[in-house]
Structure formats: structure tokens, C-alpha cells
């Protein structure tokens, strides 16, 4: 007797009870009565409810879901069955809540960036562009020559020429009176010059600033490595820059310039770029700095050199070693197939630039600020590439250009935005999105006094007392590579949801099929068996 009280659920016993119930139901409701006594709607609903209840009872007795069998067991008390019903309902609610939260997180953060490798070979990463800008923006030799050659309108003092030359520096802290601008415009018109052309002719020459060049341990012509470009810093010399639509190399060696950025297969300064710089102290005429030297900008080969670049300063009589630790980020094909609103980044070929070859966030923000300058001044700044569709700003627009230069030092390119608004903004101007793929060049520099005995046996450099020896190189053979991937694809989402449901309720695809089976196939099979 005690064994009967403790007996466990027997599927055959339940099936026998079901068959007995069905036979009793058939005897009490003969089939010939249905044709003569139509079933009332209330009775039909009652039958459907009894059918559904019976199938759910059978499902609870046979399913593998945790706790469901206790709801219909007859060998436990009624209170225990109610207790297990509450537990099952709470488990279902918890599972639904966790699945919804997991789905919300996947939609809130659709992409994720992780470290793929800390031993990614540096020869797979392009060498950075190296842009060198002299502290001195105006050559004294050229300025004095222009002073003798340029004509001055009647009634204007020749001392105004010095102020005109200083105007090419585009100072950001002072505004020029309109009367002075009118005088400068008359001087330029008389000499058939523009402000942009005057700036180019007064700038120090690249070949004169860069004396010797060694690339990957081989002495190389500097004019085949460096080209002259217009930047926010004025006229600068740049190496390995491919961001512009065209280059400024001499025609006779333009065919030797590679189509893609340089790469190196080693580390250490003998495998990188070494240049001997001449600041030409005696040629200083106009500068913003109190010392003598160069400003060094390290940036991606396709990015325009601006304030976002890694910046170093090298001064006279010094030997500087600039070690670069590159980092590379790439995006998977799943990211490329994602909707733009979800991935929130752009590839280099997905948006066309006005004067630059490839899209990047830095290039987009630069052109965005340029467009703001065009809207503000009605002309294009002289340091920006122009395909002929825009008017180049002249001397009369100098105050507007000086004012617009401040746009390039603010995150949102808008002086009216406070810090609180910048912190809470969800988007950048002009629809600029971050890069899906990019290279970042973190740099460190070490400087020491230059040993002048290095030039003792070199007749060309007898007076090289103010030279600068610069080395730029990768510091290691390995680098860090990041991978941007989707947070959850269909497989990981299935694993995540299935893990949550399986942990709490023991749910699986088979149990879902069981539920469908008891509501659809099981009644059909029972009907066929009765026939």
C-alpha cells in the first residue's frame, strides 16, 4: 500500500485512463444523436475547452520542460500543484524578460570592437605619412627679393609690403582693418599677384629644407620622396602622402612614385625614414614660434594633415628618434552588409570626397569645415584643393579666413556650441561617420644632442651647425589589430536565447515541436485511431 502511494507517473496507465474516458464519453453521447440534436454553441465551446485541457494535461505529463509534470500529477497534494504552477509561470515570465533584454542589448549595441591579435605583422600596415612643416613660413631671401621687385601704388609707403608678407601667415589672434586690406589688394593687383600665389612664392623650398634622405637604409633623392602640399600650417613637405587627387612631384620623376603607400618589412631606424633637416635659421622672416625647427605631423597616408595628426616638434642641433607603434582596425564582411544606421561607420569607398581621394572621418570633418568656410566667406581657402568650381579667397576675405580657421580647432566646428552640448551630441556635422577600417599611429620620441663629428668628413656639411637629424620608424615587428564585428548574428542570437530558455525552463527546439504536436498532430492521430 505504501508503494502505491509513492508510485511515480506511468505513461501507460495514463493512456489507459484516457481510452476509458473516451469510451465512456462515446457511450453517453451516441453518434446518431448528432444528426438529430444539433450541438448548442455553449456545449461546443465546452467540448473545445475539455479537448484543450485534456491535451495540455497530456503535454504537461510528457514534456521535458522543468516543473510542468508536477502541475498535473495526482500523487501530490493540490497545494503542491498550485505551488508548481506559480513556479512555472514565474519561470516563463523571467525567460521572456531576459530574452527581451538580450534582444534590446543587441539592438542598442549592434557592433563590437575586440582585439583580434597582439602579434599582427607591421609589414601588413602601411607606413604613415610624414609631413614636415618649418617654423618659418616666409623665406627671408625671397621676401627681400620681392621687396626690390614689387611695385607700390602712388601714395603708399613701401613698408606696407612687410605687412602684406606677414598677412600670408593668416594669424588667428588679430583682425586687419578694411583700409589696410584695400591697400594690400591694390598692391597685389598692380603686381598681377594673388594672396595664394604670393604665399607659395614666399614659402621656403622643400629641397632646401631637406638636405639628405635615407629610406630603408638606401640613400634616395629627396625630391622623389617628398612633395610640397598646402596645409593649415602653410606650405609643408610630405612623404608617403596619397590623400590628394593629384601629386606635386616633378614630371620627370612622377612615374617613379608608387601608386600605393610605402611599407616596411622590419623595425628600427635603419629600416625606416631618416632625413637631415636644415631649418635655415638665417632665412627666418615670419614665424609663430620662438625657436628654430620643424613641426612633424604623422598621419594615415590617405588623411589630410591637420590638428588630428600625431604631432612632434624637432629643434636645431638635435637628433630625434620617433618610434611608431601602429594599430590597425578592420571590419568583417558582416559589418559591410549591415544597414548604415546600425553599423554607424563608413568604408573608404562609400562616400566621395571633394578634393581628397578616399573617405575617412578626418577627411570628412575637414571638408565639412571647408564647406562651412565657403558658406561663411563665399570662397574657398587657398590651402584647400580646388577643382575650379569655387572662387579662391583673396586678400579682401582675409578677416573671414582668419575667423574661419577657428572652426578647425573645435570638435563640432561651431563656436556657439558649449561643452555640455558637445558631450550630449549624437551626431557630427555633415553626416560624418567614424571609419569602419583605419590605421592609428601612436608615436614616442627621444631627442639627444646631435654629434657634429658626424659631419666632419662631409665637405657638403661643413657649416651644418644648426641641422636636425630625424629618424622615423616602426618600433616593433608586431602590432595590435582590432576587429569590428556584429554583436550578435543569427547563430549567436539563437545560442543566446536558447541558453537563457534552456537554463531556466529546459526549453529546446524539440519541446517546442512537442507543444505543436499535442495541439495539431495528436488530435489528428487520435481521430484516425478512433476510425
From TrEMBL:
A Pfam family that the UniProt record links to this protein: ASC
Membrane-crossing residue ranges in chain numbering: 82-105, 490-520
Location relative to the cell: Membrane
Lineage top rank: taxon: Eukaryota
Coiled-coil features, chain-numbered ranges: none
Membrane-related topology note: Multi-pass membrane protein
Keywords: Glycoprotein, Ion channel, Ion transport, Membrane, Sodium, Sodium channel, Sodium transport, Transmembrane, Transmembrane helix, Transport
GO CC terms, sorted: plasma membrane
InterPro entries (alphabetical): ENaC, ENaC_CS
Family: Belongs to the amiloride-sensitive sodium channel (TC 1.A.6) family.
Protein name: Sodium channel protein Nach
Originating gene: LOC117151072
